[in-house]
Amino acid sequence: MNARTRPTASRPTAIYLRCHPHDAGLLLDFWGVLSRYALDAGLGEATVFMDNGRDPHDPLTALDSLLAAAAAGHVSAVVIPGPFVFSPDDEKARATALRFEAAGCAVHELPAPRARSGRTSAHSR
After folding, report:
1. In CATH, what class is 24-113?
2. Looking at residue 113, what is its pLDDT?
3. Listed residue (21, 30, 24) closest to 123, CA to CA
4. By the number of CB atoms within 10 A of the CB, which of 45, 74, 107, 115 ranks highest?
5. What tens digit of pLDDT does each residue of 43-93 get?
6. 104's torsion region: left (phi>0), alpha (psi -120 to 50) or beta?
7. Which pTM does this prediction carry?
8. Are 99 and 89 in contact (CB under 8 A)?
9. 101 — phi, psi (to 5°)?
10. What is the DSSP code string of 70-91?
């Protein structure tokens, strides 16, 4: 990670979560795993942005707020369980990730369960 994307007090890390249909239990699992990942990766404590229960075709107000914060330089990194949280459409999901990166905000995807070796996976529940 370069200095431009290193989180600081003025440019913190964020977590973005979206689950459709609404699933509070799964989101809480992911929240815990992603929070631990952010700390372990040296990204610090993360602020959570959530669009729980939102269909990707509906306005994703938390995602829009997070993109605006990144564009304004207020967020340096976003941690996600996978690009599917941005959209079920792979191209749209990649386009959203590129919008974050163009704003100087690194996108950190949770590694696959095997890559985390020994950690409990929210995917395996």
Report:
1. alpha beta
2. 72
3. 30
4. 107
5. 999 999 999 887 778 888 999 999 999 999 999 999 999 999 999 999 999
6. left
7. 0.77
8. no
9. -65, -35
10. HHTT--SEEEES-GGGT-SSHH
Domain boundaries defined on the chain = 24-113
Cβ–Cβ under 8 Å, residues 81 and 34: yes
Q: Which amino acid is at 99?
A: R
pLDDT band at 123; cut points 50, 70, 90: very low
Query: 47 with 14: CB under 8 angstroms?
Result: yes
pLDDT reported for residue 122: 43
Q: Could you tell me the two tokens for 113?
A: 């369960």
Rounded Cα gap, residues 65 and 103, in angstroms:
14
| Dihedral class, residue 118 (left if φ above 0, else alpha if ψ from -120 to 50, else beta) | left
The DSSP line for the chain is --GGGS-BTTB-EEEEE--SS--HHHHHHHHHHHHHHHHHTT--SEEEEE-TT--TTS--HHHHHHHHHHHTT--SEEEES-GGGT-SSHHHHHHHHHHHHHTT-EEEEPPPGGGG-SSPPGGG-
